[in-house]
Amino acid sequence: MWPVNARPPLTLLPLAAIAAAAWLLAAGPAEQQAPDEPSWPQAPARAHMPQPARLPAEPQAPGRQRTLPSSSTPTKVDRLPAEVPTPAVGAEGYGPQILRAIETGDARQAFEAAQQIDACRASNEQQLDALYQARAASPRLDVQRLIELMQAEMRRCQTLTPDLAAQQTALARRAMRGGVPGAAAMYSQLTNARPPAEDRSQLASQLQADAQDGDAAAVQQIATQAEPLQLPPDTAAVYQASYERLRRAAVFPERDGRDMAPQAPSPAPGQYVDGERVGRIVERVLMRQQMPPPRR
Known about the structure:
With 296 residues, the chain is mostly helical. It has two domains: 10-168, no CATH class; 193-289, no CATH class. It is built from 13 helices and two strands, in the order ααααααααααααββα.
């Protein structure tokens, strides 16, 4: 789960490209042209993983639901990618990289590790099945190379042990406390906006800073979690109004034509909403999303 408009690290790009291709091929393989066959590197077998050094335990709210887009929700593409970037990962797979981020990584490396954990969770049989279905629906379309690349990505993710994956909240917390853009939205989601008391003020402040810089995921977290974040009513109203406008602009994911974004409370009757702040936030998000500005 990386936030809506955060740039994923290089190691996350192959999975996103594969997922997009799987979606495209499953939706209409007969209409696409197969590009020239590249030669893909073979992925190594699963490596033995050392036990990780644990970060301080962080509370995680029960029943957490995913609300932000991840690589399991592929972005529509216009054509089958001719080339898919190969991650700079050796025989060790992703697990040791994440372990190093836990033990010695800085705040940005911690955030990239937390993002990679989400990407590996999305590397699942459902996406592989979409490629199999595309191949069966149109035998003339060669998707074997994408199947092999997805399988290789899944093997790289096999080195991500449950103990390593369990450190995601602690990694996101380190990144948020280090001021990494985008980390606040992830940490808020992982804790249902109910972090330890010593983190609440910084989390709320960083979410607002990221939102004002155009981070749609931060806007979503503030709008839907204003109460646990203990935001003043006038501040909450600005982000709730901004979020509603962004939903109408289709910034957030849809599935089968339906809006999948969670509902946010509406400002209380009579509550003043600073329309200028709302407009600035919405325009900044749309700019980062490379979408047209709203009509005035």
